[in-house]
Specification:
The structure is a single chain. The protein has helices at 54-70, 89-100, 188-206, and strands spanning 25-34, 44-50, 74-77, 107-123, 126-137, 140-150, 153-168, 174-183. Residues 1-23 have low confidence and may be disordered. It is of the alpha/beta class. Helix 1 (54-70) packs across helix 3. The protein is elongated and about 80 Å long.
Amino acid sequence: MTMPINIRSLLPIILAAFVLAGCASGPEVKSISKAPEVSEAPRDLLVLAISPKENNRTVMESALVSRLRSEGFQAEAYGPAPSLPWEDPDALREKVKERLQSETADGVLTVSLVRKKRQVEYVPNQVVFNPVTTNIGALASVTYMETMTIPDRYEESTEYILRTTLFDTDSGKAIWQMFSTTVDPKSLEQAARDFSRVAVRELQKSFTE
């Protein structure tokens, strides 16, 4: 089974942020590919979040398993594995193969962090006009525009790029893959839930279209 080459931590996973005026955005799908010869997705999945950080792995795997099960899949989290060789793709692949010998899973779904990118953007000052209404009597009012100037500033954000791959257990080949981004998530838990919703939705769409 060919595992992803770039095995870094799976997100301080999508943690971090709101620095200055940064704002969170949900997952955005960048690209999806599927093996053309495969018409049906495996339905019994072993879910592995590739990261040496056990808490991050637990949160991500749990969110994916929950979403998969709610959509009719059978799914199991890889679970605690602090001694897995995260920095050695070949050794990691062999460990997963060993695990599959005692599993009924016909597919393995992995998710890993490809890149974490910090961005700083200059935002020039802005003038905002806000309508204000004042009552001047029982039946009358007057409206005027209140002007407020927002000073120039720098906005900092962090983008996380994730790779999600579905492997067929029998052939060991990758049959589906998605790259997605998340910017300044509010929390690990919320990011994992949002990501799982998008990943499972796109997985199902890919094998039904």
